[in-house]
Amino acid sequence: WEMRVADTTSGQRIVHLIDQTAHDAAERMRVDFVANASHELRTPLASILGFIETLGDEAGEDAEIRARFLKVMFDEARRMQRLVEDLISLSRIEADKYRQPAQPVDMAELVDHVWEEFLDSGSPRADDIGCELAEDLPPIAGDRAQLSQMLHNLIGNAMKYGKAETPVRVRLDRDGPMLRLSVADRGEGIAASHLPRLTERFYRVDSGRSRSIGGTGLGLAIVKHIVERHRGKLEIASEVGVGTTVTVRLPALKTPEKNASESSVTK
Ligand code: ADP
Question: Is the beta carbon of 232 within 6 A of some atom in ligand 1?
Answer without folding.
Answer: no
